[in-house]
Amino acid sequence: MGQAVSQPASSPPASCPVHHSPSPSKSSPAQCPIQHENMASSSTLPPAQCPIGHEPDPPINPLNQMPSLSQQPATQQSIALPTSRETSSIPRDESSKWDYPSPQQFYNALVRKGWETPEEHVETMVQIHNFLNEQAWLEILKWERKENPTEDPQLTRFKGRPGELSPKARFWLFAGWLLPSRFNTEPPFDRHDWVVRRRGTGEEVRYVIDYYSAPPEPDGSPVFSLDVRPALDSMGSVKQRIAAATEDVWASLRSDRKVGVTRSDA
């Protein structure tokens, strides 16, 4: 728990795995709980880069830090893109879940930031974006169910922090600088903070999510690594992290001991 978990995307290769949703008003439908870093423009599809910035011109919603994105086709858009939105598995409150952006909204965000993106790849990019959201939420649930196995938490708000390396990401970058043959030398391509509410107590817990690129599958499918853990900003979260680290150490020792016994038997 807390270590990076590699997840192969089930979709064909695409550049940006994550995208921002429009900002909802109080009466508008829920939006997507992910926002991302602004990278340089490219006419190709580079791996593990995200075109969405964090400095929107229109007013932003405090729940997701995102501006409103139109469902109307962009100027010079050559093919029609779907405007339907998929509902996530992530609870927003007692009665609703967060919605993912439509391919048209995704494309409008790319255009707004000046990215030259082939329109035929947009739907695949949205699929990868949604896949990463779901994987991040599953990792959060693993932490939360150790605290309360019967309770389903809610994602109450979130914030992208592009360019801000978490202390843990800095540590692993330093380890990569010291031992590049053993540790990753690439920083995460994005970071998000998700605030989860525990329904029973109303307690809010902040989670940090670092997004890494991983080597692609043999068929070229992109693979991403998510490091999801509670932020060290409360005693409860500190205890969770210590317990998880201890559990990982004991699991590793048991595994090594088992391998040693098997070899001696052989």
UniProtKB/TrEMBL annotation:
Compositional bias per record (Low complexity), positions renumbered to this chain: 16-33
Catalytic activity: holo-[cytochrome c] = apo-[cytochrome c] + heme b
Pfam families in the cross-refs: Cyto_heme_lyase
Location of this chain's protein in the cell: Mitochondrion inner membrane
One MF annotation (Gene Ontology) recorded for this entry: metal ion binding
GO cellular component, one term: mitochondrial inner membrane
Keyword Repeat: no
The keyword rRNA-binding belongs to this UniProt entry's keyword annotation: no
Top-level enzyme category: lyase
Enzyme Commission identifier(s): 4.4.1.17
Annotated InterPro entries: Holocyt_c/c1_synthase (IPR000511)
Region span, Disordered: 1-101
Function in brief: Lyase that catalyzes the covalent linking of the heme group to the cytochrome C apoprotein to produce the mature functional cytochrome.
The protein, known as: Holocytochrome c-type synthase
UniProt source species: Grifola frondosa
Name of the gene encoding the protein in the UniProt record: CYC3
